[in-house]
């Protein structure tokens, strides 16, 4: 015990994380359109491989709801054999970015873009899984999923089997909602496990006509990518999906690490090493043909709250997943798919930051707009394009704010007209600057004060000099910062400091 002083706490925490991760691994796999066992494989690798590496000591990795939509689209478009290539290439990219010390730069990504990304994923995930709850086939597009929901639910109301599936899924969601209000002794069983367990008992006890998980066995589900599938790397669509996997998985993992660091007083996350650990895990998952992994805040928070002290807890949780997959895979065949869909609907709802949107709208409407546009773009276009639109909008907003410029004109009716420029004079605001200056009286002295400028770029400086030179008998040298200068004796005087 002296060698492992926290073994008791870590052992107990690992069991809690295992019980939380088990239904989520299976649910994410089924929702992604791949065998359920592949979700367990990713959870095992996330625990044992990534868990052993340095980075974030208490963060737990595995298949995440945040990538479900993208994985489903990739499997549908390129086929399951290509999934391993996508995940393997993404892992290699993550390792490379970590080695180049790019991990910390993910912290510079606009929080509004990340939250908008998660909100968009949540909306598509909820819509898609509601079809699974209704035992119906979901349309391909995000907008199609949302538009078709009323009809799908109406059809389910007239079909006894579909109605049973809807009620089972709704019951699963209800258990998850009320579980946090249950007595502490009851809550020792994690909510997702309790919800799936109760749904499974109800399906068996009442012999409900609902679909259950198909089981192939762990070895039967693992399909390492063949050499032929690597030829798909020449496809632009495949390369775009790899970039999307890499950016989204990395951003979600590192933002999760920052959130987990706020939950405990232990060692802080080493972001570049954590990115390499995630990359190593994804490379192994890709080699096994499994799902991509990210750090998962639900499991990580459960790990911290259960009293974990070292990374031993997350490694042990991977061991328990491996033992379950090897010894008890037939248990999965009893789990109703509507119950797993209910868990993912609940998880999708938690991805939508309703309170944050309200707060942002009150204080930073531009950030709220970025969040909403990113989410809507993901739903209406696709994951990759939606994130790019959000990033472009965030960059445009930053550029606009960085070029904030104020021109104040004081005209007392006699003496010089005083004009004060303050803020950042960049080419983005050059038309406004020139229009305002050219509108000043041409037959009276003008004093232009640049002392309030924080930045004067080359384009603005040249334009101001040209404006001054067009005035009669005037020459000037403009500088932002330094000694005030006034060159010339004619009606216009320029004061720069």
Automatic annotation (TrEMBL):
Primary place of residence?
membrane
The keyword Calcium appears for this protein:
no
Q: Using the record's annotation, list all stretches that form the SLC26A/SulP transporter domain.
A: 7-374
TM spans, by residue?
12-31, 78-100, 112-134, 161-179, 191-213, 233-255, 319-348, 368-396
Cellular component terms per the entry's GO annotation: membrane
Q: Which InterPro entries match?
A: SLC26A/SulP_dom, SLC26A/SulP_fam
User: Which named protein is this?
Assistant: Sulfate transporter
One GO process term, biological-process aspect: transmembrane transport
Membrane topology listed for this record: Multi-pass membrane protein
Q: Name one Pfam family in it.
A: Sulfate_transp
Q: Which domain of life is it from?
A: Bacteria
* Compartments it resides in: Membrane
Alphabetical UniProt keywords: Membrane, Transmembrane, Transmembrane helix
Q: Which organism is it from?
A: Streptomyces dysideae
